[in-house]
Amino acid sequence: MKVKTLLLGAAASFVMAPAAMAERGSDGHVNVIYWQAPSILNPYLSGGTKDIEASSLIIEPLARYDDKGALVPYIAAEVPTVANGGVSEDLTSITWKIKEGLLWSDGTAVTANDAKFTADYCMHPEGGCAQASFFDGVESVEVVDDLTLKITFDQPKPNPYGPLVGGQSPVIQAAQFANCMGAKAPECTEANFAPIGTAGFKVDEFKPNDVISLSANPNYRDPAKPAFATMTLKGGGDATASARAVFETGEMDYAWNLQLAPDVIAKFEEGGKGKAIAGFGPLVERLEMNMTDPSPDLPEGERATVAHPHPFLSDIKVREALSIAIDRDLLVEVGYGTAGKPTCDLVPAPDNFAAKNDFCLTQDMDRAKALLDEAGWTDSDGDGVRDKDGKKLSILYQTSTNAVRQDFQALIKQWWEEIGVEVELRNVDSSVFFGGDPGSPDTFQKFYADVEMYANTFNGTDPQQYLAAYKCGNEPRPASQWQGENINRFCDPAYDALIDELGRTGDIAKRGEIAIKMNNMLTKESHTIVGLVHRGRVSGQSNTLGGHILNVWDSELWDAAEWYRIK
């Protein structure tokens, strides 16, 4: 059966880098810096990469993706497939076996009930789960016995590796989060800031938006790991300071996401204490066009909600004009060099799912101006800003604070002003912007701006959950604690139908065709997502840190338990 293509070879052998350590904790301390400081350690309450990755030091999924994109077991004993009987012949269920003897860091046993609880926690209608798309199509989650979990879907699911798979969807401890269901989820500060986990480290102290102090999990499944007894994950600052701390001063062993111009990184490397490591996955720097009205004139509970369409970005001609006014080649040159490629797409990789569109790659200012003319936006008073029906074409364009993004903002502002658009720039501290605090007006989920720029990615080599984020009803809103993955509030029933079709299609080639259609609906056909740069991940690593392999398909900290000090 073609629908089984995805499943027959899903399990992979898993070989980590050899670790040169004799016993747990023998290599002392390791320092990590994330200049976007983590603000919570519960990825179900944050879509920010910084929070998801920091959490992965502590809590783990049933299985995750290795550096080649292959699915490998973590909490689970093996990856279920049709061939080994873990996935039903009709593809409507998947059965996971938990590893025997696995303990939480507090010494209690990990059971299938923890996994079921996690699914129930995320699927609770009042919980505002940031990773809800991972549970799309789940009909029931059943504890078969202490170590066996069965997930049943509402239709055949050729790619059943969504729920509790990958760094974005880990298993949390039922006992710790028992009183945190639904609307109470954000109130459980102790659990959200110090989850009990199964990974190599446990939280000793967490200062949100600042620093995490961790120590080796005394109940980690490999008694010889991790080699480091303690870890400090320092947050804040900027990418420049992070690079300096690894390459020049040697204060830090690992620096995440060095979003710096290539000549800057090369200069830092001359310090001799570390090296830049890079890899291309599906990460895209992009603009999201707000399809709803963020005006502060609206009541707080109604700003940026689907009840109020955006006054001018609802017009596709305006969105297309803004897109084709951008010179993406110059953005790549200024911001990334060989670590970037211009793109029009949301999903640029892997190859089977990549549309490889070129409709936006040539800047066309004349066409952009013509589109705005056609949309009725003209400069009636000669002040250089287009207007219509007494309203100025004025955009608030926001992003997180870092040098490359501010360079991009300045260039894009210049181009948009050339076509008659007034532009106000705002940059927000990344810890706040990506923090997911429902009380903050400055999160990327609330989107109290007209346009915002950021990058995120998906776990593994299949974009099903990533594309499903743009489902009608999945937009952040007051009822969901301002959580949700449909950031720009796009809604098209035809797109939702493709989400369902992708979910029941097993043939790899056909899955690629459907995913490309979905990508095109968001980009080429609607311009609600404006791709800018297909970014390589660039991080900095000390010359004395061993055991790490850069992973562009899951958390960069996926193998922290394998790290050791090169003597």
Structural account:
There is one protein chain. This protein has 567 residues and is α+β, with helices and mostly antiparallel strands. It folds into 2 domains: 295 residues, D-Maltodextrin-Binding Protein, domain 2, CATH 3.40.190.10; 255 residues, Dipeptide-binding Protein, Domain 3 (Dipeptide-binding Protein, domain 3, Roll). Helices cover 22% and strands 20% of the residues. Strands 1, 7, 8, 9, 10, 11, 12, 15, 16, 17 and 18 form an 11-stranded mixed β-sheet that branches. A 3-stranded antiparallel β-sheet has the order 4-6-5, covered by helices on one side. α6 runs parallel beside α7, α8 runs antiparallel to α10 and α14 packs antiparallel against α15. The termini are far apart. The N terminus is likely disordered.
Please specify the SSE layout and strand pairing.
Layout (H helix, E strand, L loop, with lengths): L4 H4 L20 E6 L14 H7 L7 E3 L5 E3 L19 E5 L14 H12 L14 E8 L2 E6 L20 H4 L11 H5 L7 E7 L3 E6 L13 E6 L3 H9 L6 E2 L6 H8 L4 E16 L26 H9 L3 H8 L4 E3 L22 H10 L12 E2 L2 E2 L1 E7 L2 H16 L3 E7 L1 H4 L17 E6 L7 H5 L24 H11 L4 H15 L6 E14 L2 E2 L17 E2 L2
Parallel strand pairs: 1-9, 1-10, 15-16, 15-17
Antiparallel strand pairs: 2-3, 4-6, 5-6, 7-8, 8-9, 10-18, 11-17, 11-18, 12-18, 13-14, 19-20
Helix pairs in contact: 6-7, 8-10, 14-15
